[in-house]
């Protein structure tokens, strides 16, 4: 194959001219800013400011800040956070007297609102903005401009091929222009060559990835600042209204306001739970769902819905999850005169996978003993959904096959008026007295549905009427979650585009040689060493060769006066002289 060589400009050495030429050919293949301060900042305040800004908006600093953000989130996951669970934070302080003050100084009990985490977050945000804006502007300029003209020496490019043809140079250039545009290259005539470029989606993917990161950062920030999360235990037949006082526990972001709560209400119609009855998975839940009736707004119409595990009910930007289930025995308490002083379903907390449960029944007002003395009653309750003789300590199955309720009553002062908060599931016995049976032992009895335990000395009775079921709902409200999901998806596609697409350029030069025969040169250049550029160039050269086939070289066999040989083959793409290998 023959190769054409073009001389250097006057006053330039060939090496300097080639390097300058190749630099122009490869310019703007990327939107990464040129490091003009690589040797250090200029003297003065402005020089240092420019240097600092260039470092902050560089990709390596953005990746470092992203790594620091991920590392900073680790203590937020391992150490109890005051905004999430104050009780666990208090327990940690009590158990770790030495570490707790250190964690306080470092802000590890409130990582996501600490100064250092916020500083990393803001610097990452600024770094991404400072990186994206100039690169986007530069990329828009590249889209509006044309690919640069062909270098003087195409032989210096990584992929190169050449051949001689009897076709006119104008015909070859026109055929090359048509071919490249058909292959979706942006192509134009530039002097004696056709310049073409392809792969702009790589930069689109790169910029999309960084923009998606900003969208995710903003969405996560809004989600944390304006989020709310609460839990509510609801017994069958009872309801819930989305107001702050209705929650059993509630936590929210720093900028959340109660006015942000979505107006809705719902009632639990029925909870349905079925379980495996045989095999190694005996007792495993098969059906776990709650049928509810809900309405939106003060005058909204009632609607039916079924909430299942991992299938929440969505109302505006609130989601209602089903998180737990248990039993609530219906208890009726009568005083010494037979008057009903308490009747309600009492939720009990599960202790194991078979829903062995425990809790407390507290009668605060209205109770009087046989002598008319007003007291308070506290009854410890232990419930077995499936009671089996010989296994009195735990239920043998989670469903209501043979429910038994064990009750241990006390009388006296529950301590609820002392001003000290106490759990509804625990009984303070410090000011309570036991009821004694006829043998002088503590009164304790197992009841089945419909049975009654009579308190001694005419003090009244306790009846186990039946069993309802309860469900625990978690109501979350996290704005901008859709934006975060969209940003994550866009980031994945953008990253895939920036990794698997390659931006490349192709030049086709056709000039008339000294002997009157047209010399065709083709060369390609990509952002990085890749087999795709030579392969693509070879494919293009093969198609163009069919339209402008080669003519025998007078210096090669097959010409009159030379030894006979086959006709010249199709052009082969080879590494050009001086190209990197």
Written account of the structure:
One of its GO terms (biological process) is cytochrome complex assembly. With 581 residues, the protein is an alpha+beta fold. The protein is 29% helix and 28% strand. Strands 4, 6, 10, 11, 12, 19 and 20 form a 7-stranded antiparallel beta sheet that branches. Helix 3 packs antiparallel against helix 6 and helix 7 packs across helix 10 (532-547). The protein is elongated, with a radius of gyration of 40 Å. Mean pLDDT is 84; it is low at 1-14, 36-41, 556-568 and 576-581.
Which features does this protein show?
TATA-Binding Protein; disordered C terminus; 581 residues; disordered N terminus; six-stranded antiparallel sheet; 22 strands; seven-stranded antiparallel sheet; alpha+beta
Give a brief description:
This protein has 581 residues and is of the alpha+beta class. The protein has 10 helices and 22 strands.
Number of domains: 4
The description of the largest β-sheet is: 7 strands, antiparallel
* Beta-strand percentage range: 25-35%
Q: Detail the poorly predicted runs.
A: 1-14, 36-41, 556-568, 576-581
Overall outline = elongated
- What distance lies between the first and last C-alpha atoms, to the nearest angstrom? 20 Å
Helix content: 25-40%
Number of strands: 22
Average pLDDT, all residues? 84
Structural class by sheet pairing and helices: alpha+beta
Radius of gyration: 40 Å
Q: If helices are DSSP runs of H or I spanning 4 or more residues, what is the number of helices?
A: 10
InterPro entries: Cyt_c_bgen_Ccs1/CcsB/ResB, ResB-like_domain
Organism: Streptomyces asoensis
Membrane topology: Multi-pass membrane protein
GO biological process, one term: cytochrome complex assembly
